[in-house]
Amino acid sequence: GEDVEQSLFLSVREGDSSVINCTYTDSSSTYLYWYKQEPGAGLQLLTYIFSNMDMKQDQRLTVLLNKKDKHLSLRIADTQTGDSAIYFCAGTFNQGGKLIFGQGTELSVKP
Amino acid sequence: GAVVSQHPSRVICKSGTSVKIECRSLDFQATTMFWYRQFPKKSLMLMATSNEGSKATYEQGVEKDKFLINHASLTLSTLTVTSAHPEDSSFYICSARDGSGRAGVTDTQYFGPGTRLTVL
């Protein structure tokens, strides 16, 4: 089945940029998503990218998609302490509408 | 827009009792809702897909008689954990799929805030 991989931890200083990476294996997804989860909360949809796009920018967030390498990234500019959370990439990958998630990257922002 | 609520947010119950969790899409109609379980520091595990007016589709290894799902309307799905045991303690999250394309992305899943279940 589809495998979605993320690094588990990322630590940055406040004001720096954060880059969270995600790779997938077998197939493509029409849309790829980034969700944010704060402690004890549900998942908040941050942004998404359509599979025929290479890049999407939304305020401090930039999503890059490299379909050849099956690599997705989320860049957060000017990272703030409020950005500390777990970030999940996800796609449907021809799984009948079911979302397949990565393991989540825990972002820690130090003042 | 695209708000999903869950109730209750937190529940503590005794072993052997049943607990019902509600998932509502507040400003859109959701023909499909999903139920996930999340263990601490782990990713989400899909338990079942709930379709309005029909039986839920359970993932492999999930006991359908233990986790009863009802999707009676386009805005409400319920998960009942029957005869709960301490090993059922977990964070349960639902999501609802907006198939209208209203938000600009068809089939995007919007998540509820989760329900923390503790079984004593």
Number of helices of chain A: 0
- Tell me the fraction of residues in β-strands of chain A, as a range: over 45%
Radius of gyration of chain B: 14 Å
Mean pLDDT of chain B: 90
Percent range of helical residues of chain A: under 10%
Task: Tell me the span between the first and last alpha carbons of chain A.
Answer: 40 Å
> What is the strand content of chain B?
over 45%
Morphology call of chain A: globular
Instruction: List unreliable stretches of 5+ residues of chain B.
Output: none
Give the overall average pLDDT of chain A: 92
Number of helices of chain B: 0
Order of helices and strands of chain A: EEEEEEEEEEE
The Rg value of chain A, from CA coordinates, equals: 13 Å
Q: What is the structural class of chain B?
A: mainly beta
Number of strands of chain B: 11
Summarize the biggest pleated sheet of chain A: 6 strands, mixed
Task: Describe the secondary structure blueprint for this structure.
The complex is a heterodimer of chains A (111) and B (120).
Chain A: E1 4-6, E2 9-13, E3 18-24, E4 31-37, E5 43-50, E6 55-58, E7 61-66, E8 71-76, E9 85-91, E10 100-101, E11 105-110
Parallel strand pairs in A: 2-11
Antiparallel strand pairs in A: 1-3, 3-8, 4-5, 4-9, 6-7, 7-8, 9-10, 9-11
Chain B: E1 4-7, E2 10-13, E3 19-25, E4 32-38, E5 44-51, E6 57-58, E7 67-73, E8 76-81, E9 90-98, E10 108-111, E11 115-119
Parallel strand pairs in B: 2-11
Antiparallel strand pairs in B: 1-3, 3-8, 4-5, 4-9, 5-6, 7-8, 9-10, 9-11
